[in-house]
Design goal:
- With 129 residues, the chain is an all-alpha fold.
- The chain is elongated.
- It contains 4 helices and no strands.
- Helix content is 78%, strand content 0%.
- The model has no long low-confidence stretch (mean pLDDT 92).
- Helix 1 crosses helix 3.
C-alpha cells in the first residue's frame, strides 16, 4: 500500500477573506441596484406626492419619518455615497493611477470609510436643520 501525499485543501468559506477590491466592486453593483429598484420609486413617490397636494405629501412625509422610512432613506443615502466613492475610485484608476496592489487595496477600503463618513455627516446635517 502506497502512502498518500498530503494535498493542500482549497480555501474554505470559513477561512477565505475576500479582497477589498472585490467587495468594493460587488457593493458598487448592489448600491446601483438598490438606488434603481428602491430609490427611483421613492423619488417618484415623493415627486408625485408633491404634485398631488398637501394630503398626499403628508402621507409621504409620515412614511419617510417613520422608522422604516428613515431606515430606507438612510440605506439609500449610504448607497449613494458608496456608489459615488467607488465611481471616483474607478475614475482615478481609468487615468492609470492606483494600480499598485497596496494602493488599490487602500483605495478600495477608503471607499467604505468615505461613504460611512459622508452618510453620517449628511444625516447629522439633516437633523441639525
Amino acid at each position: 500500500m502506497s502512502e498518500k501525499k498530503q494535498r493542500p485543501l482549497s480555501p474554505h468559506a470559513s477561512i477565505y477573506r475576500p479582497p477589498a477590491a472585490m467587495m468594493t466592486s460587488i457593493m458598487h453593483r448592489i448600491s446601483a441596484c438598490a438606488m434603481s429598484f428602491v430609490g427611483a420609486p421613492m423619488l417618484v413617490w415623493w415627486l408625485w406626492s408633491l404634485s398631488a397636494g398637501p394630503g398626499t405629501y403628508q402621507q409621504f412625509t409620515r412614511f419617510a419619518s417613520s422608522w422604516l422610512g428613515t431606515f430606507i432613506l438612510f440605506g439609500l443615502s449610504w448607497c449613494f455615497f458608496q456608489h459615488l466613492a467607488s465611481g471616483v475610485r474607478h475614475l482615478i484608476m481609468d487615468i492609470g493611477a492606483g494600480y499598485e496592489l497596496k494602493t488599490a487595496q487602500r483605495s478600495a477600503l477608503a471607499t467604505f470609510a468615505i461613504s460611512i463618513v459622508l452618510t453620517l455627516a449628511f444625516w447629522m446635517a439633516m437633523t441639525l436643520k
